[in-house]
Design a protein that fits this description.
This protein has 798 residues and is of the alpha/beta class. The protein is built from 30 helices and 22 strands. Helix 13 links the parallel strand 11 and strand 12.
Length: 798
């Protein structure tokens, strides 16, 4: 019998060595002291799980889980299995009484406090395939022992490369033994707590059980709201129930995902090859906090900014490799064409039309479908901007899906919903050339298979994609936000489905703006962005290489000392490396001369404006400070703060600056201190002025905000003369003036002088109250006077 057991163990070990590739989640192992007396707690009594753990412990130089702990010449098992099974087959380990075993450890701990046992809960699973939800009437049939073995071996062979071990935080047995509760109850509570944590971790990593597509369709059709709408439609369409029901089903099919774990596995391998070829690195920041929130059982809603079609794939890839379940993604119907639509559905995409106007049935079905997904605990991803940004700035948020998300919380508040803002950036964006064409008047081409094939060709030809950046911003707990800002929200937990609570839409708008602020606060600045913003701020778009490096050094020091936010990231390399990296992207060129080397543009100005606009918001306050000091020549610190506060509400609203009124003043003081330390400005007593020796650097820095100020002086000057002008007339008048000002320029600067950004500015002024508001006359006058001082520009308004 022992001989057979050894042969069996040998076969299993050989199989594990060939087929198993272990990934640990999260990396708590670095914090565990190797010399501690560790007790492992596992969920299942599986021989294979124990051997997998043994293999990983050997790598990490942790105690062998198969060996016993020797204390006072007594041997006690190192592993405890909290889920008992009646299976006595060799494949599983013999049952132990968990309570008695833990009780032994507690007694030993009380006798000798120097032992200091540490409990280490460990969850092991092979593959991440979600199970299909079984019927309530389903009964487990007796499965033979041989079938169980074959199933397990096939599982190892097929998905063994995706074996995960989740190491939870260690628990001190000393702290448990000191509690004044009955030992039996204490141990039961401990086991219950560990088991619930295991279930939450498994849920976060694999996701909820999947309902078969047809069953989900039936559930949606049975919902009261859809039944009511179908009955109304039947009455309107002269009693044609079959046609209405088939039409309703066709809408559900148009929307619904068709998730496939096997497709995820195939896509994961393909994506790994593609990303390795196209990107040097995928740099991820802020992911640990999101993993912790997911492991606590929270529902996660991912809200990224949208720059490229690659966003869908790269974010899902990053989330999957953090050990979290793949989110279901809200994709536009423009991507619902063969074969992309079919593939995206298999990867977890569900499709949404651009507008619900004129189709109430579609609107109700979509809401019902999304609420069901969130209620079941699926993590969801949607782009809050609605579409890709063509300018490089964040777009005004769309609140439709966010409103449905809040509604789903009102129907089920057992699990908190966490909104996760995400900033995605690239050293190179494939679609930038098409964006500039669209912004200059070309019609947008509908997505099709030919465009996809062209994109694949571009990927093959383009070797300098550089890095991709994914920054997870500050999460927003929806329940906590509502408790703080909407005190009456719990009164609407069972609200009428036909009518929304009065607070819902304005709250959704406020949350959307809050999320946009958090997305911009998590900005990932890169070498392309930095070099673009500097070169587009100098004459003839060329600069001495030495001066360029000095300017980059200035910005490195500035944002290292005064970071834009906790979640903001800046290149960690030296100024020379940042410049060399930017040149490698082929967007900039090193022009060698006898006297000096020059850095010039190697790309269209409009394209580089896109990259500049990605990070312009982080330079708004530093640039504005220098601009004010330059124009006023000698000024006090308090006066600088007062002048910035005149224009800050406008800038904050349009560019989603995360600092509120209280924090902005401190931020200004810190930046002024840093400028004094860098000797860009000089302070004598209370007076501040520009250091003439650093004039070149301050000139470039102050120029970063010029385009914004020029645009607003144009709009505000019209408002000053015509305070009762409506938004449409203001847009037309501003457009004429901007075009007239740029008429004689040889190069048409894309910058802020386009329809999208101009409309965004007007929306900002309307939201703040500058348009058609008699109370704001004085504010308009003060804003105009400040802008006129900073940008001396003759504007003729007829």
């Amino acid at each position: 019998m022992i001989h057979k057991y050894n042969i069996y163990n040998g076969i299993i070990n050989l199989l594990l060595n060939i087929c198993i590739n272990i990934k640990t989640l999260p990396k708590y192992l670095n914090k565990i002291k190797k010399k501690q007396k560790i007790i492992y707690i596992l969920q299942k009594k599986s021989k294979i799980d124990l051997l997998i753990l043994k293999k990983q412990c050997y790598k990490q130089k942790l105690p062998d889980p198969t060996e016993s702990i020797k204390i006072n010449n007594k041997k006690i098992p190192r592993c405890i299995f909290i889920n008992n099974t009646n299976n006595k087959f060799l494949f599983y380990i013999k049952n132990k009484k968990n309570i008695e075993l833990i009780n032994k450890y507690i007694k030993l701990e009380k006798k000798n406090f120097n032992l200091n046992f540490k409990i280490l809960p460990i969850l092991i699973f092979i593959g991440r395939k979600p199970k299909y939800k079984k019927n309530k009437n389903y009964k487990n049939k007796n499965i033979t022992k041989t079938i169980k073995i074959i199933k397990k071996i096939l599982q190892i062979i097929w998905i063994g490369k995706e074996t995960f071990i989740i190491f939870s935080k260690e628990i001190s047995l000393k702290n448990i033994s000191l509690k004044n509760i009955s030992k039996r109850l204490l141990i039961k509570k401990l086991i219950y707590k560990i088991n619930t944590n295991f279930n939450k971790q498994k849920f976060a990593t694999i996701g909820p059980n999947i309902i078969k597509r047809n069953k989900l369709f039936k559930k949606i059709l049975k919902s009261k709201t859809i039944k009511k709408k179908i009955n109304k439609e039947i009455k309107k369409k002269y009693n044609k129930p079959k046609k209405i029901k088939s039409f309703t089903l066709s809408i559900i099919k148009e929307i619904a995902t068709n998730f496939s774990y096997e497709m995820i596995r195939i896509a994961n391998r393909i994506m790994k090859i593609i990303w390795n070829k196209t990107f040097d690195k995928i740099i991820i920041n802020g992911n640990k906090k999101i993993c912790k929130l997911a492991y606590k059982g929270n529902k996660i809603i991912y809200l990224p900014c949208h720059k490229s079609h690659i966003d869908y794939l790269i974010l899902s890839y990053a989330i999957y490799h953090q050990g979290l379940s793949i989110p279901y993604i809200a994709a536009g119907t423009n991507l619902n064409f063969w074969p992309i639509g079919y593939l995206f559905r298999k990867l977890g995409a569900f499709f949404i039309r651009r507008t619900f106007i004129g189709n109430k049935l579609y609107s109700i079905i979509f809401k019902e479908y999304l609420i069901k997904l969130i209620k079941r605990g699926h993590s969801i991803e949607y782009f809050i901007e609605g579409s890709r940004s063509r300018t490089g700035y964040l777009l005004k948020p769309k609140t439709g899906i966010l409103t449905i998300t809040i509604k789903s919380l009102l129907k089920n508040i057992n699990k908190p919903i966490i909104l996760v803002p995400i900033y995605i950036n690239y050293d190179h964006i494939m679609e930038v050339k098409t964006y500039t064409k669209e912004m200059s008047g070309h019609l947008k081409k509908n997505e099709n298979i030919l465009q996809i094939l062209k994109g694949i060709k571009n990927i093959k030809n383009m070797k300098n994609f550089g890095n991709s950046y994914i920054n997870f911003g500050e999460p927003l707990n929806l329940i906590k936000y509502l408790n703080k800002h909407v005190k009456e929200w719990k009164q609407n937990l069972n609200f009428s489905k036909s009518k929304n609570p009065n607070w819902l839409i304005p709250t959704a708008k406020n949350i959307a703006n809050n999320i946009m602020n958090r997305i911009n606060a998590a900005v990932a600045a890169n070498s392309t962005n930095l070099c673009a913003i500097i070169l587009l701020s100098v004459k003839k778009y060329q600069i001495n290489k030495i001066k360029m490096i000095e300017q980059i050094k200035c910005y490195i020091k500035l944002f290292k000392t005064v970071p834009y936010s906790k979640y903001f990231t800046f290149p960690k390399e030296s100024a020379k490396k940042i410049l060399n990296k930017a040149i490698k992207t082929n967007k900039f060129r090193l022009k060698k001369n006898k006297n000096c080397d020059l850095i010039t543009l190697n790309e269209n100005i409009n394209i580089l404006n896109y990259y500049k606009n990605n990070i312009q918001h982080i330079f708004i306050i530093p640039s504005l400070i220098i601009k004010i000091i330059q124009k006023y020549k000698k000024i006090k610190k308090k006066e600088i703060i007062d002048k910035i506060n005149i224009i800050y509400p406008i800038l904050k609203n349009e560019f989603y600056l995360y600092l509120n009124k209280k924090k902005i003043n401190k931020f200004i003081i810190y930046i002024i201190k840093e400028f004094i330390n860098q000797k860009l400005i000089i302070q004598k007593k209370l007076i501040i002025y520009i250091n003439k020796k650093r004039n070149n650097q301050t000139k470039i820095l102050s120029t970063h905000i010029n385009d914004i100020l020029k645009k607003y002086i144009t709009i505000i000057s019209i408002l000053k003369l015509k305070p009762n002008i409506n938004t449409i007339d203001l847009y037309n008048k501003s457009k004429i003036l901007i075009n007239y000002q740029n008429k004689n320029k040889k190069i048409n600067k894309f910058k802020l002088y386009n329809k999208q950004t101009l409309l965004s500015s007007l929306k900002t002024l309307k939201e703040i109250g500058y348009i058609k508001n008699k109370k704001y006359k004085e504010k308009i006058k003060n804003t105009y006077n400040l802008l006129n001082k900073l940008i001396k520009k003759k504007i003729n308004i007829k």
